[in-house]
């Protein structure tokens, strides 16, 4: 496999289900983006965000080496000026990492303030539709 937790990779959406989207990372590796990891705001349907055949950038959240399942996140990919602090060399060798945290992202509340108007407009547009 050769992937590491926290690594950002490109993949192609191969399938969409009500609970998430399947993404092909390479010829032998496929991962799942859970609906809660598609974006930081609420989405009702994965189809609103992703489509089969889309090439997207994702972050690897978890790798289950026993059964080969890879958990992915689209919302953890650094965007909109968020600065990723150094995470090199951080690896849990005593067990499996299950959860990705944003403790290494240095952005505070400023990104919420910047995106507030856009998020409100998007929510209002969805309510009107």
TrEMBL record:
Keyword Transit peptide: no
Keywords: Ribonucleoprotein, Ribosomal protein
InterPro entries the record matches: NA-bd_OB-fold, Ribos_protein_bS1-like, S1_domain
Keyword Ribosomal protein included in the entry's annotation: yes
Every S1 motif domain range: 6-75
GO cellular component, one term: ribonucleoprotein complex
Cross-referenced PROSITE patterns: S1
GO biological process, one term: translation
Family matches, as SMART domains: S1
Pfam families linked to this entry: S1 (PF00575)
GO MF annotations in UniProt: mRNA binding; structural constituent of ribosome
NCBIfam families associated with the record: S1_dom_CvfD
Family designation: Belongs to the bacterial ribosomal protein bS1 family.
PANTHER family tied to this protein: 30S RIBOSOMAL PROTEIN S1, SMALL RIBOSOMAL SUBUNIT PROTEIN BS1C
Protein's name according to its UniProt entry: S1 RNA-binding domain-containing protein
UniProt source species: Weissella diestrammenae
Taxonomic placement: Bacteria, Bacillati, Bacillota, Bacilli, Lactobacillales
